[in-house]
Design brief:
The structure is a homodimer of 372-residue chains.
Chain A: E1 11-13, H1 15-28, H2 33-48, H3 59-67, E2 78-82, E3 86-90, H4 96-114, E4 116-124, H5 130-138, E5 143-148, E6 169-174, E7 180-185, H6 192-201, E8 210-211, H7 221-227, E9 229-230, H8 241-259, E10 279-286, H9 296-308, H10 325-337, E11 339-341, H11 343-356
Parallel strand pairs in A: 3-4
Antiparallel strand pairs in A: 1-11, 2-3, 4-10, 5-6, 5-10, 6-7, 8-9
Helix pairs in contact in A: 1-2, 2-4, 4-5, 6-7
């Protein structure tokens, strides 16, 4: 059930060293220190949680976007309109993790007095994992929600072309002795990164999650990557894939369309330097303490308790999991033992460090044998 | 892609007559007139949209709950705590469609000045289709969102027992010349009603949407109804069913847990007279006019235009649909030609009318031949 794929080869690097190195790389791209620290914080948090596809793996692309001026390295998000409850921001094509952190914190501060508040941005950039922002609210005892639209990779139900992003939804809530409830999910059946990993490992993907370039379902990752598309959560029409399609649209409506950003196929794919993605991003904070229903975290514990003790289906690989639980375990492990980067990921960072004159930190031990 | 199943046999009744008859039945249960009108309005709206499982089909059960005192027929929802932005209500086990209408309208009114506002209820009752409330906001030019938890029918990923409701999410937004965007979806792969319909028609259900009483996937509807469970959207773990599971939990956290209502398996199944369900329900309204991104509806039109003209996959049964489009078509048709009720649905209403001394309205023409 892990939403991440553990590397099958790689080296281990201390999380603090990786964060410092990442911040230094971003700083050398002429980014102010506080902004660089936000970028490093979020990317390394993604690595720590085992979501390698959204962590420092993206840094070489981020750097090329900054160099090309597609990311404006000194831009700071500005409140542009809206109300005290619902504020509309111009993220000014600055660093995504910085704008996201600022907008979420602003929503959290306002929700603490208003009960609920939201920030919405246009001209936003890729911000790594949506869950990080929602978790920021949960760490303060609030419920956090985050949505963003993203590069078009998903075909609408009945369609064959890439029209919608994997448009994630994240919700985090404090859960007492269970730590945090963290749902952080793409509204596609799988992420693009999963298909990339399958291609690299020369394995097939499961049926019902993607189309080839001919618009027919395929299990060959190369067919998807070349000219195919992901399917929405639920897969085909007969297995209710129109619900995943609807959810992807819900996110687009609440982000790109509402914020006056790009939406649908107009979103400029993240990895190109054609121009800013101009994403829409929404951050909501709700304070359970604002309503007279004391004991929110106790009820979260009761719900989680019921789940982890639930009767299992035959062949279940383990007990029922709480959303975010595998990532929290991975984070705890990697905080202590270091972050495992796969070989290509590590190589790309070493190379980036050489180009920028910031030597990549020493790894813990030699690279392990490539087990492919 | 229709989320509803058209009756395969039945009679046709004028929508206005059905609404008046329904209101009269509810009124005879000692319900104040305005409350009875809300109940009739929402149930018949569900029928009009082709969602027969949530319309007047439920009236006999509603009536028995009212008779048993499980629904408090004279209760009106009261604001209990919260803030101007986020208000917490006691729905007092009154009629669900009335409380829902009041809470949504209150959120709409507040959002019109605040930019965004929400109402959350505990001690709420079944309220028919979630989309109706969201559409009320869209009819005023706002974005509406509604969520409710519901009777436990869904197994968590890896589990086998009924722990979670089909916990729907609805979002409606005005879409200019495309009318309204209305996503209204259970977070299970299919609704319970679909399985009931399959059993009645003696057909199989598609694989990957439900478990039998042994906890194994089944395509036999009877096995599901007897002691099985629905699977979350996405199906099994390998096809990302944990995302549907996460969404069902998200709804439970934002409704039952947050509101201090029942949640998880504690929700009293709707059709029993054991006691009130004590549902949690959330209603959110967002005013796109509150932010400086003029032209929200124009952007909705652009998004919809891109969808309906999208290149199709081979074998697609028609063009790409916009969420809510099949229901809107059905509603337009049935407003003119009458509402088609299947034979058993019609019989149950005739019987209810006889018991309550309110004769069911004349149907248009004789029942058509049963085509099963």
């Amino acid at each position: 059930m892990a939403p991440f794929e553990l590397p099958i080869d790689g080296v281990t690097v201390d999380q603090e060293s990786l964060r410092e190195w990442t911040a230094e790389i971003v700083r050398r791209l002429s980014t102010p220190l506080d902004i660089a620290n936000d970028v490093a914080e979020v990317l390394v948090a993604s690595d720590l949680r085992g979501v390698a596809s959204h962590g420092t793996f993206r840094l070489p692309v981020y750097a090329s976007l900054a160099e090309a001026g597609v990311i404006d390295v000194i831009a700071r998000p500005q409140k542009q309109s809206g109300t005290q409850v619902f504020s509309h921001w111009d993220a000014a094509n600055g660093w995504g993790p910085h704008a996201g952190r600022v907008l979420m914190d602003d929503a959290i501060d306002r929700a603490s007095t208003l009960g609920m508040a939201a920030s919405i941005a246009h001209r936003a950039s890729h911000f790594s994992i949506a869950g990080w922002y929602a978790m920021r609210a949960a760490a303060r005892g609030l419920i956090g929600m985050t949505m963003t639209n993203s590069s078009p990779l998903v075909a609408p139900t009945r369609g064959r072309s890439r029209l919608l992003g994997t448009n994630p939804i994240a919700l985090a809530a404090p859960a007492g002795r269970f730590g945090m409830f963290v749902l952080d999910m793409a509204t596609s059946a799988v992420t693009w990164g999963r298909v990339v990993v399958a291609a690299r490992r020369e394995t097939e993907i499961v049926p019902g999650i993607a189309l080839g370039g001919d618009g027919r379902p395929t299990t060959v990752p190369g067919h998807v990557l070349e000219s195919g598309a992901l399917l929405p959560l639920g897969g085909g029409e007969e297995t209710a894939g129109y619900k995943g399609y609807g959810l992807a649209l819900m996110v687009d409506v609440l982000t790109g369309v509402l914020a006056g950003a790009n939406f649908g196929s107009r979103v400029v794919p993240f990895s190109t330097t054609l121009g800013p993605s101009d994403l829409g991003q929404l951050f909501i904070a709700i304070d359970p303490g604002s309503i007279d229903a004391a004991g929110f975290e106790g009820r979260m514990e009761d719900l989680c308790e019921e789940l982890v003790t639930a009767p299992l289906a035959p062949g279940a690989p383990g007990r029922v999991l709480i959303p975010g639980e595998p990532e929290a375990e991975r984070e705890a492990y990697q905080r202590e033992h270091g972050i495992l980067l796969d070989i290509r990921h590590h190589e790309s960072l070493v190379e980036l460090g050489e180009r920028r004159g910031v030597r990549f930190p020493a790894v813990r031990g030699a690279p392990v044998e490539d087990r492919r």
